[in-house]
Amino acid sequence: MRRAPRKDVRRILGLSFVVFGVVVILVSVVSAATSLGGLGLASFLIGMLLVYLPSQSTSFSETVKGYVLSSLINVERSICELASNTKAVYLTVHDRLEKPMVLLPMSESYSDTSKNGIQAEGGLLLLDPSDAHKTGLLLEAPGASLLELLENESGVDFFDVDRADLIDSLRSGMVNSLELVNDLKGMIAKHELTFVIKDGPLTDLTSSVLRSAPTLSSRLGCLICSAAICAAIKSYKCAMTVENATHKAGLHHVTLRFGQEADEERE
């Protein structure tokens, strides 16, 4: 036997205020008592707010979606029109206050020179007159703000996280602190770092991002993937190339490649 749905207390209280307000307004009209009219109108408005606002609540995912999708669509158009099909390079973060940046080169050979130290300075179009291979789109990483939120919530600055603790710190922040995803796993090889992330409460948001900005998501990573990459470059303190970013069946697979400078830092 199905249980009757629980009654919304706020809705019942709101309807009571509305009915009371209407009755008082009618009485004030009949009796020409203006003071009662003010009381009735106030009760009516309070009741309407109590009835209306709960029914119009939006989820966190919907709020974020409305905030970021237009910006991501503009970035998607810029990538498709200005940058060729090259691999994105997340640039080295040199201090804890520096925003994670990503470069989309216009030459495929840039991936072999990613450790040469391009600084995250300049406008949207980065031009290097001395080296055509260092020309491309310089963007703030899509997940930079999400990582900042994660760091504020968890109290962990990934600039201070040892690379051996990176996976555990990311899992703790994304799964436990912010509850962004259901699970996060990682594998560290000699020159490669892989993340496998299982979607959670933000599934609708990530799906909308994938539909609206598929090129950005596959080359730079979606918002969640990009946040994980930003944490990695802060911890490793070296540039990383996005070799692969795929999103299927609620799973995010990201493979990053880093060069010899990471080994030099380790030593």
Would you kindly provide a written description of the structure presented here, covering whatever features stand out?
The chain is of the alpha+beta class. It has two domains: 9-55; 61-266, Muramoyl-pentapeptide Carboxypeptidase, domain 2 (2-Layer Sandwich). 48% of the residues lie in helices and 18% in strands. It is built from nine helices and eight strands. The protein has helices at residues 9-31, 34-55, 60-82, 144-154, 166-177, 203-212, 214-219, 223-236, 260-266, and strands spanning 89-90, 101-105, 125-126, 136-140, 181-188, 192-199, 240-248, 251-258. β5 and β6 form a beta hairpin. The radius of gyration is 26 Å and the shape is elongated. The N and C termini lie far apart (68 Å).
User: What integer is the average pLDDT?
Assistant: 76
In which order are the strands of the major sheet placed?
3-4-2-1-7-8-6-5
**Biggest sheet character:** 8 strands, antiparallel
Distance between the termini: 68 Å
In CATH, what is the class of the largest domain? Answer: Alpha Beta
Count of alpha/pi helices: 9
Q: Please count the beta strands (DSSP E, at least 2 residues each).
A: 8
Looking at the overall shape, the CATH architecture of the largest domain is 2-Layer Sandwich
Shape: elongated
Whole-angstrom Rg:
26 Å
Uncertain runs are 1-7, 54-58, 111-117
What name is given to the CATH topology of the largest domain? Muramoyl-pentapeptide Carboxypeptidase, domain 2
Encode the helix/strand succession as letters. Answer: HHHEEEEHHEEHHHEEH
What oligomerization state is this entry in?
single chain
The amount of helix comes to 40-55%
Q: How many distinct domains?
A: 2
Structural class: alpha+beta
Report the β-strand fraction as a percent range: 15-25%
